[in-house]
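Hi V.,

Quick status before I head out on leave. The structure for the redesign project is tokenized and pasted below; the design run finished overnight.
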């Protein structure tokens, strides 16, 4: 998967270089140098969002493309906040009407496994279940994982804050996988400092923050993967 991402962005950078040269040669009349460059990369985020079916990434990419090229598109009357508000409302509506489906893959739940959807209770402790999925939208939620054999967790937060504590969790065979997807939201993980944590997260207009340090030689290994789109992943070592 990482190989595919590298190819995608590599091709995009090459297209950006070509577009910049063409613009400087005067073949794209009425389009500025920076407008061309920014539009190319916003188009990349747009295409990436379409493949991932991430409505926020799709609509906000379109909004920013419209803002950058307002004069060329003849939409000067649509001020910046109008386009951004439309993208926000559209994202909320589409997430409600057409929620994304979970797909299988190397970093997703094992084929044939059906994770339980945990709703309402703060304490998650289900002996025998090795995978869990939790989704939080438009609010805040706290989860305390007390799994005896936690193998995989899939966490999503849209327009809200999701806090998850792993201090009482036991990883199956000393290894666990957490897939995070904060979209216009924040996911905050509290992980034992004695664990080794491997972070392999894609960021699209988002960020990853670490507070404290983990043990690079720790016996318990937690791999954190996923996509951060217009949101934030925070990892606190406790």
């Amino acid at each position: 998967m990482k190989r595919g991402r590298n190819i995608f962005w590599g091709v995009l950078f090459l297209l950006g270089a070509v577009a910049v040269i063409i613009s400087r040669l005067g073949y794209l009349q009425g389009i500025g140098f920076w407008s061309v460059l920014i539009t190319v990369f916003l188009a990349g985020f747009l295409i990436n969002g379409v493949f991932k079916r991430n409505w926020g990434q799709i609509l906000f990419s379109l909004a920013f493309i419209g803002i950058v090229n307002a004069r060329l598109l003849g939409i000067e009357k649509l001020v910046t906040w109008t386009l951004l508000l439309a993208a926000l409302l559209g994202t909320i509506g589409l997430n409600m009407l057409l929620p994304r489906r979970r797909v299988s893959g190397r970093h997703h739940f094992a084929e044939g496994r059906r994770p339980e959807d945990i709703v309402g209770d703060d304490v998650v402790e289900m002996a025998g279940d090795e995978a869990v999925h939790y989704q939080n939208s438009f609010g805040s939620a706290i989860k305390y994982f007390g799994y005896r054999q936690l193998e995989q967790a899939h966490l999503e937060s849209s327009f809200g804050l999701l806090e998850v504590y792993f201090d009482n969790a036991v990883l199956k065979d000393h290894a666990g996988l957490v897939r995070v997807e904060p979209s216009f939201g924040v996911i905050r993980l509290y992980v034992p400092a004695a664990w080794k944590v491997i972070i392999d997260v894609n960021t699209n207009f988002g960020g990853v923050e670490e507070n404290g340090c983990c043990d690079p030689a720790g016996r318990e290994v937690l791999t954190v993967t996923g996509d951060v789109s217009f949101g934030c992943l925070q990892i606190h070592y406790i």
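Above is the designed sequence. The chain is about 35% helix and 30% strand.

G. will cover questions while I'm gone.

Best,
W.
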